[in-house]
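Late entry, written up from scratch paper. The run itself happened at the end of the previous shift, but nothing got recorded in the book at the time, so transcribing now.
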Amino acid sequence: MTENTKTLQILAKDIKLLYVEDEESVRKSVRDTLAYFFNYIDVASNGEEGLELYKKSKYDLVISDIRMPKMDGIELTKAIKEINKEQFIMIVSAHDESNYLIQLVNLGVHSFVSKPIDVDILIDMLVPLCKIINEKNELELYRIQQIRFNAIRELLSNIAHQWRQPLNVLAANLQNMEMLHEFDQLSEEQIHQSIKKSMKLITQMSAVIDSFRGAFDNSTIEEDISIQKSVESALKIITDMLEAKDIVVKVDIKTDSIIKGRPNEFNEVLLHIINNAIDAFEKNSIKNPYILIAAHKNDRTAELSISDNAGGIDETTLQSVYEPYSTTKFKSSGIGMGLFIAKTTIVHHMQGNLELKNVDEGVKCTITLPLKQKDLMH
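Output as recorded:
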């Protein structure tokens, strides 16, 4: 066993691979070799099949032949790069296909290996590529942790804000009872009313905790999600912040839609987008800020849009806001918009799409998601 073979076993074990090859004998042989290193491999027999798999899952590396039926390697590479321009791709090519290589280099292919595939050469080429992929994944994980840490910080800030008023009322209520007792004026009816008022406040505070816990729990189980209830839940969490900043929120959801996914992740997406608007209002000193949330059904999808009048995003930044290290916030924040997480959640976890564009006085974020089967329109 060579040194690179041992190294690749370590580097590749957690990397998710999509392998696309139309020749059955080659596909089986190479797949068996790759399985020695990669724990997660999906296999496709042509470019069209490979693209369908790619749309349904997230892959760290794609290895594809050039010449294939239905969709060749160049067309597949173009389609993948349109979805994710940072995708790592290795192309397998015959010696008489060198005229295609310039096109593939221009498309951003990271590596090439010649047919017939020499296993030692393949291993030698995969080692540096897998090192880069692992480094990128570690940076992305760190970035996600940063964003989620910021979300937790905002969560605690919102809890403190929403608890401050009821705590002040509770304190005043207790002090009032103490004063009445000292002056021997505390009646049984006053005690009853004070307890009733205090319990109402405690119930309200408990509901705040339940709302926050529901939005940020760690459940990985997919459930039915009501878009209307998700929007209401997200707004409930930040209602005090919206009121404090005089931000008007209009909700136009005439017909609810049921989608499938992880409620906590979907709530995080909504909160990311709304909080981006709130930050933009403050940054751009917007007068009369408002957010419009609308939703409707199509034949097979639900469409949810969140629009604001926060001034928009410059076009150069707009092209890169989905990248994991992009930010449109102040440098002092150092946190970024979290749109990388939002897009990843919607596209890869919920098989939908998320688009951002400038409209009128601000930005419109449109989320398109497949309806749950029984909620499809007939």
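Residues 307 and 364 are 4 Å apart (CA to CA).
(Scratch paper discarded after transcription.)
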